[in-house]
Design a protein that fits this description.
Length: 279
């Protein structure tokens, strides 16, 4: 997981979606207050996916797996739109200013809100079992752990503190530490809850893919420094292209590639210092 700058989109089609979303949100809020039924318009928020994939380099916001026809993805609502459940998958109760204590109806007014939408692979977004001999579940589904109580009105949102990391609002590196073997550990409660809920260490294929990304970037960085030392100009120019791609964060598991570059650079610097002292 890496931080992603998610700007507003400036396109004609975009204005159309925003206006429709605002109209529907106002409709849902009025109906909810009047105890009337309403239905989330799935077709509208799915139109956001094109923009989301463009901004996230075609990757899942949480685990950085490439979303493709082989690895399909969803538009993920950071705050669940239809209901909220706890770790036991039972409905979470909330105190509504007018209705009193109710089962949380979900953050339905954010169903079409750009700030609440992320691209996600299905392993992160849906709850599924992983592991064969010892099946364990992971995936977010309608879970949304917070510090204290969940709010259920737009004006109270600023008072709610999520445990999960939204990589467009929080720097994941403050909460998560990735390791060369592909595993990740939590530096904070937010980090630990995020790892557990999305199964970031539980999904073996994911850990393996992160380890491979680290090893490939490690090998590349060592080769790059050899090109620099030997003055191999053509290769150095090629390397720069890949280094820029790594810096951009648009490649799968960019967090591991950046880690590998830092680790190799530190190793080479330490060797250089030792060589100077020995001399
Ligand atoms: Zn994912």
């Amino acid at each position: 997981m890496i931080y992603i700058d998610k700007p507003e989109i400036d396109a004609d089609e975009w204005r159309d979606i925003v206006v429709q979303g605002q109209t529907l949100s106002a409709d849902h809020l009025a109906k909810f207050d009047a105890d009337q039924d309403f239905k989330i318009n799935d077709t509208l928020y799915k139109r956001f996916m094109r923009y989301l994939l463009e901004i996230f380099g075609g990757k899942c916001a949480y685990c950085e797996t490439r979303i493709s026809s082989n690895q399909p993805g969803d538009v993920e609502h950071f705050r669940p739109k239809g209901r909220v459940v706890g770790d036991d998958f039972r409905p979470v109760q909330t105190l509504h200013p007018v209705k009193g204590t109710i089962n949380h109806p979900g953050y339905f007014w954010l169903a079409y809100d750009w700030s609440n939408l992320l691209p996600s692979c299905i392993d992160c977004n849906r709850y599924r079992n992983h592991g064969i001999e010892d099946p364990q579940g992971a995936g977010k589904a309608d879970r949304f752990p917070v510090k204290g109580s969940h709010v259920c009105a737009p004006q109270d949102l600023a008072n709610e503190e999520p445990f999960l990391i939204d990589p467009t609002k929080i720097q994941p590196a403050l909460h998560l530490e990735f390791h060369p073997d592909g595993t990740v550990s939590g530096k904070t409660e937010e980090g630990r809850r995020t790892i557990e809920l999305f199964g970031l260490n539980m999904r073996e294929g994911l850990v393996e893919a992160r380890r491979e990304a680290f090893q490939n970037a490690d090998t590349f960085t060592v080769a790059h420094w050899n090109h620099v030392v030997t003055g191999f100009a053509a290769k150095i120019a090629e390397d720069e292209h890949r280094l820029n791609q790594i810096r951009s964060g648009r490649r799968p598991y960019a967090v591991m590639e950046r880690l590998a570059v830092r680790v190799v650079n530190a190793r080479i610097e330490a060797e250089r210092q030792r060589a100077i002292q020995d001399f």
